[in-house]
Design a protein that fits this description.
The protein is of the alpha/beta class and about 450 residues long. Helices cover about 50% and strands about 10% of the residues. The structure holds iron/sulfur cluster.
Length: about 450
């Protein structure tokens, strides 16, 4: 018997209440952000149901995610037949411009050759006009929803962005915002328009996952990044992709466009707080040659003024921050600007980069007692919390049980926010997002203080 295997098994700790979500979920969100596109999960039907449930509970919008619906037979002999049938059905029922296929744990485990299946599908229908079909490999046992998200953005760009000549459809900037809220996407578009920059923003689910009331059922919601725009990404002057973790990754959509087509790539952090938003605006100034519009300069001035007003409430407050690695990095940057100590920065992500990035961002991390933990679940977070007595938690709704158990308030950000309304309308980005986050954090602390006070609050 192989003794090293026994040892490995003995060290194994199961995940309890994961601080991450399933990888195809991230890919499905990207496909929902492309105009007239349909996500298709290659694997068991339960995966599609689970992911739909998560997305719907956050965005409160109808979400179709197709499935190749594996049976026992497909699990043993492969899912080629199921994939062909699913593609035929989608063409008939949705008439999409793009089908985005993400593979689930089951199809990844049996090693289905999706690229091979697609090649023969296209050959068989070579006389028909087929939609774009993009495949991204998303084994959930290897990554998180963020890996699925970034993998899908890259797969779409690699699959669609071609060496097409410049036309009226060409734009100046490609922008890859990462997994941000529909409200954040709308704000980014306002910023780009105020700078007079034409852009292709991928993915754009600001309408499809935060839309208006329908008078009639829409099979595919309106909105999303236009497929033809993605094909012109090679003509852009520059790409901007947010995320210090993504910047350290081996590959990304922006890196691909730079290597293949010489499109300059700017990689600021997620623009949360003053410093990171300044870096984003400085990239826009560089690219456009225009100064920061007055509207945003005045937002910045009001934000700094409010930091002074609210400083006495937040100075020295101890916070636990958790969620996607790049979101945690962005929030830590904001917290240090306002005087909060992020005593525990945790994520289920396993890039291995978060600790180094946060420690270089906060040189005094040791004296402040800041702990940075990647690849953790909520059980690990709870064990850490027992020793660090935080005042507040900042993260998604998955931390609610912990917040209730330790009696500390939770400021909900990121995804999923399924125990409140308006998850898709939370602003995180830009000076506007920092203002909203700051006000919410301060008011949460004030409210907690009033709740704990014997006299509550009075004003004469
Ligand atoms: S089996 Fe894998 S892909 Fe399916 S829901 Fe679970 S983690 Fe996600």
């Amino acid at each position: 018997m192989n003794l090293s295997l026994i040892k490995k098994h003995a060290d194994y700790t199961p995940t309890t209440n994961a601080c991450k979500m399933c990888t195809p979920l991230g890919a499905s969100l990207v496909f929902k952000g492309i105009s007239n596109a349909v996500p298709l999960l290659h694997g068991s039907q339960g995966c599609s149901t689970y992911i739909r449930r998560y997305i719907i509970s956050h965005f409160k919008e109808p979400v179709d995610i197709a499935s190749t619906n594996f049976s026992e037979e497909a699990a043993v002999f492969g899912g080629g037949v199921n994939l062909n049938r699913a593609l035929d059905n989608l063409l008939k029922q949705y008439d999409p411009d793009m089908i985005g296929i993400a593979t689930t744990c089951l199809s990844e485990t049996i090693g289905d050759n999706v690229a091979g299946f697609l090649k023969s599908y296209r050959e068989k229908r070579k006389d028909e006009l087929l939609p774009e079909i993009i495949h991204v490999s998303t084994p959930s046992y290897r990554g998180t929803h963020m890996d699925g998200f970034q993998g899908a953005v890259q797969a779409v760009v690699q699959g669609l962005s071609q060496s097409v000549p410049e036309t009226v459809l060409s734009h100046k900037v490609n922008i890859f915002p990462g997994m941000v809220s529909p409200a954040d996407i709308r704000h980014l578009k306002d910023i780009l328009e105020a700078f007079g920059i034409t852009y292709a923003l991928l993915p754009d689910y600001s309408d499809r996952l935060d839309g208006a009331l329908w008078s009639e059922y829409q099979r595919i919601q309106k909105g999303g990044t236009n497929v033809d725009r993605i094909k012109h990404m090679n003509n852009a002057v520059a790409s901007i992709e947010f995320g210090r973790i993504l910047e350290g990754a081996r590959s990304s959509a922006g890196k691909y466009l730079k290597e293949q087509f010489g499109v300059a790539c700017y990689s600021p952090g997620l623009p949360i707080g003053v410093r990171e938003t300044d870096s984003f605006f400085s990239a826009l100034q560089d690219i456009s040659g225009n100064p920061v519009p007055y509207k945003f300069r005045s937002q910045r001035e009001r934000l700094i003024d409010s930091f002074v007003d609210g400083h006495k409430y937040v100075s020295g407050v101890r916070a636990v921050v958790y969620g996607e690695e790049d979101l945690v990095v962005g929030i830590v940057s904001l917290l240090r600007e306002i005087g909060i100590i992020p005593v525990l920065c945790a994520s289920g992500g396993k890039s291995g980069l978060m600790k180094e990035i946060i420690e270089s961002m906060v040189p005094e991390h040791q004296s402040l007692g800041i702990h940075v933990k990647g690849n953790v679940d909520f059980m690990d977070i709870e064990q850490q919390v027992a020793d660090i007595s935080p005042d507040i938690l900042i993260g998604n709704s998955k931390g609610y049980r912990l917040s209730r158990r330790i009696g500390k308030p939770l400021v909900r950000i990121g995804f999923p926010v399924h125990d409140r309304i308006g998850g898709g309308r939370i602003n995180h980005l830009g000076y506007q997002g920092a203002q909203e986050l700051f006000d919410r954090i301060v008011n949460t602390l004030i409210e907690k203080g009033q709740d704990q006070s014997e006299i509550g609050y009075s004003y004469i």
